[in-house]
Amino acid sequence: MQTTKNTILITGGSSGIGLAMAETFIKAGNEVIICGRRGSKLAEVRQQFPQLHTRVCDVSKKAEREELFQWAVSEFPHINMLVNNAGIQKEVNFLTGAPELYEDESEIETNLTASIHMAALFIPHFLQQKTECAVVNITSGLAFIPLYCSTKAALHSFSMSLRSQLADTNVRVFEIAPPIVKTELHREAKARKQSERGIPASEVAEAAIKALKNDNYEAIVGQAKSLKGASRIAPGFFHKLLNKVAAG
């Protein structure tokens, strides 16, 4: 797929992987739109990258997703790429009845439902375009050993299903599965006793644009490759290892 002259919407684009991808796509000669929940943060990003288009949107809310879609196709009728990047991470203890499951933000709505709904909104529009289009889902290396990332595992499965359904169309479905990345999300996880580690978000962005260029529909970045391989060879061992890491 071409990696220039696209019009791209990136959810959760005001920081972390989303912002790194926005910067990379801009440098490659694309028109980029980002959305995020905080208007103040988006304003800061616009100062850094004036060529960016921004929109306040909480993708965990159905009505706001629909408003975002209507605005995007109205203002940018040639939009041809959706990057489902917005995500949060919560630890839910089902041994206690999971009272925190619906407290604060919903991980299921943000990580999974939003990505599926956004794809459903944009794909009919993409099918009318005369150029190649793409849905890019940002998952995780832990999607292959879903100790904490069940929503990302579900998004991985959805990506495969969607890719199969759209195989004979102009819409390509990419999945980018990074390892732990040094972002705000990682810092929150670190506060929950995870050790200091992670690759720069820019490395994920470079891997993503390379995957698009080479039509690599499932791009597993860095150490995430070993997680997928080990999940097939010795899943029990890796679950024990990751439990030890999580315990600090």
Relevant CATH superfamily: NAD(P)-binding Rossmann-like Domain
What order do the SSEs take from the amino end to the carboxyl end, as H and E? EHEHEHEHEHEHHEHH
Please tell me what the overall shape is: globular
Terminal CA distance reads: 42 Å
| CATH architect. name | 3-Layer(aba) Sandwich
Number of strands: 7
Specify the biggest β-sheet: 7 strands, parallel
User: What is the count of helical runs?
Assistant: 9
| Side-by-side strand order of the widest sheet | 3-2-1-4-5-6-7
Cα radius of gyration in angstroms: 18 Å
Compute the number of structural domains.
1
Q: What is the top-level CATH class?
A: Alpha Beta
Mean pLDDT: 85
Enzyme class: oxidoreductase
Organism: Fibrisoma limi BUZ 3
Protein name: Short-chain dehydrogenase/reductase SDR
EC number: 1.-.-.-
